[in-house]
Amino acid sequence: MNYLKSQDSTQIAYTTRGSGPAVVLVGGGLDDGTENAPLAEALAQWFTVLNYARRGRGDSGDTLPYFLSREVEDLAAVMSVVDGPAHVFGASSGGALALEAAASGLPIASLAVYEVPYMADENMVNVWSHYVDQLIAALSAGRRGEAVELFMGLAGSSPEDIAGARESPFWPGLEALAPTLAYDAACIGDGPVPASRLASVTQPVLVATGGVPDPHMGGLQPGFFDAAAEVLAAALPVAERQVIANQTHVADPSVLGPVLHKFFTAM
């Protein structure tokens, strides 16, 4: 594990694997960098891969109050570890953060995002708004377990899945990460694709989704991620839309890795 200081002096923990052009991995909700670790190993055969724990997660510190701009500064600090521009991959809400970073002017060479959970219709925007209100209330009251349950429910987990998660040995770790759910909510913003904001992103962007619904997200409306991806791809000046067959919300690194390799090396 390596450490650096972001612009506001927050400690950010990261790992480095491989050699070659740089790729930075940005994790999504309730992830401390662990979820992207297998992908880092898969990509290390072609790239120098930096996988970091976003602020408030894992060995990374946190500085309050939270601002989305500070997370952009964190990504910039990780990118500064290598010389020159880096490619960036963002999973789920981490994809929204990566897109915001590109819109903010970070020198990203090219960007790939996977299943960014923007809301593609009015009903889901209303659901999202209600979730954010409930989330902030739960976190303000210190009810971390409730915050995690709210997130899992939003993501389509069944009551049985949520009850099982509560009884699992992983639950304390999820509760520890619960405050960062507000950070992910800030990355998504009001819910819809921020088309006017993303119109300034001039880098090539791969907008990818999997071809299989995630069994732990059965409550989501069919085609949720694909609908968001279509709107997102249409909003970006230079976008490539791809469905990666037979993949769920957490894609198999042995499948996703070659897709990212092809996209990043073509740029």
From TrEMBL:
GO MF entries: hydrolase activity
Alphabetized UniProt keyword annotations: Hydrolase
User: Is Hydrolase set as a keyword in this record?
Assistant: yes
Q: Domain AB hydrolase-1 spans what residues?
A: 24-249
* Matching SUPFAM superfamilies: alpha/beta-Hydrolases
Q: Can you name this protein?
A: Alpha/beta fold hydrolase
Give the organism the record lists.
Kibdelosporangium philippinense
